[in-house]
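sorry for the late reply, my laptop died twice this morning and i had to redo everyting from scratch. anyway the thing you sent over, i finally got around to it. pasting the sequence first so we're on the same page, its 357 residues, then the predicted structure underneath. double check i copied it right bc i was rushing
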Amino acid sequence: MSDRPTPNHRARWSVLLRHGPSLALLFIIALFALLDWQFGSGRFFSSRNAGVIVNSAALVAVPALGMTMIIIAGGIDLSAGTALTLCGTVMAIAFRDYTIPADQAGAATWIALALALGLGVGILCGLINGLIISLSEMVPFIVTLGTMTIFLGVGQVLAEESTVYPQNTHLPDWLRYLCYTGSNTDYYWFSFLPIPSSALIAIVLGIAVALLMHFTVFGRNIVAIGSNPLTARLCGIRVGLTTTWVYALAGVFVGLGALLYFANVKNGNPSDGTGKELEIIAAVVLGGGSLSGGRGSILGTIVGALIIKTISSGCTMLSIPNTYTHIIIGVIIIIAVLIDGLRNGKPKWLFARLASG
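ok and here's the structure:
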């Protein structure tokens, strides 16, 4: 009898890989709950900590939704972190210098303009990336590595190399409590459902992107470009234009992510963006996104963000230094990329040996 995998075995393996991120999240939650019960404070499984994790995950998941589309299209965006904090810095400056107290007549107009300005900067950042990549046909990694430092420098110039603190009275209540995780149910959108508003926003946006990817021609074109750009071009897909739109649309989610970032910290600091792109990309990869393009999952991205923030919270509860937290997350990312490689038949020497055996 042959020892080679049967179609049934391959089907079960495929199902396991598809649900791998969710199973990994459940395992991590159970592991840290047990460790915290034995060695920590016992607060890991509390509703308060759950709210903090969900809110923190939403801050990563929203910009990661745009990154998911980029990665499915076969691209990458290393500038997402600094673009996000650039948008947040612009919002902070606008609220500091160009708005009036939120309780005064006409304040809503100025507030809307301040938020629109931050969102517009996000779209502009994405559009710049998309145009350079599509027109020059340069590697997205190199282009966005350059724009990453450009956006950081622009933010530092605007902020005069300091943190921008807006007038607290200029912030409307709904914005100040957008990332609220406390016990007062009056500050949640639904008093009977004490889930941070940021998490609800991430869920709604995730559903919107999933519908876009599954039920529109644009979504199918994104998958086609990521799978094989040459074939997509032969099929009549305008690869350059679609790529530009993908990066511009991802800029929308960077701008929305900046809104949540600003609501969470109540200030703008462009230097905070350094390293955020790694969390955003990691959420996509941990959720099953393939860095070679053509595959990704919106639900998986949200689960990936939850995995990252659950690990961070668990390590904090156990008083594990951040340096070790980064190591743990890095190891998990490498495992996720290795699993993605196994899906694609890599490493080739391993599969060649299995076939010969």
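The domain at 42-342 is CATH 1.10.3470 (ABC transporter involved in vitamin B12 uptake, BtuC).
thats about all i looked at so far, will dig more tmrw
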